């Protein structure tokens, strides 16, 4: 397969796509983009501006759910879709809820916490970029801050509080719904688990995640992260990462599995 992933390093949707590629051990090329300046490049390829974007067999696919569906459609193993129809439908419904409901809401609260320190915001989102590009990005952030808030809906009244409510709802959901197997749909890892753990990793920051933020964290963001570390749902996220996500630091370029 000719596979190339265009990504944001610290986005849960991009983490979903990376996780699927990694667990299926599909060699690919990975390129990290700068949020904001990425829009023209991505729109030219897909007609929209969201990431992740995957080039698969010469075609560009936008969105983590579509990417996982395409990888499943090509028979890449292990499958992340349960064989049983009812269980598969449950897995896809959970993925959809995290992707379309809890994920965007939690992201607003996460970004609001990060925007409290623009230097640290730069360290997170320009991680791995050349020094000059990082410098320019940091210089532009005071002007771009309002655009980030508006573009992600953070400026709407109650948006941040709602994001924290969504985080609590989602953590409670995984505690309530996880089966005796330790998974959300069936007896093995599925799209439901990857979607849930990727979204919740925004607030749990499991230590072996490719999304683990630069240390030391900004004080305000560290306080926000610390608030829910004792929640049983956070323990589930850490366990899932420990069991199914090797301690691979994200990197650009050719990704191989030897």
List the SSEs and their pairings.
Elements (H helix, E strand, L loop, with lengths): L2 E5 L4 H12 L4 E5 L5 H9 L6 E4 L2 E4 L1 H10 L11 H30 L3 H8 L5 H21 L7 H19 L13 H14 L14 H8 L5 H13 L8 E3 L3
Helix pairs in contact: 1-3, 1-8, 4-7, 4-8, 5-6, 7-10, 8-10
How would you characterize the overall build of this protein?
There is one protein chain. This protein is of the alpha+beta class and 258 residues long. The chain has 2 domains: 85 residues, Glutaredoxin; 160 residues, Up-down Bundle (Glutathione S-transferase Yfyf (Class Pi), Chain A, domain 2), CATH 1.20.1050. The chain is built from 10 helices and 5 strands. It has a 5-stranded mixed sheet with strand order 4-3-1-2-5, sandwiched between helices. Helix 7 packs across helix 10. The longest helix has 30 residues. The mean pLDDT is 93.
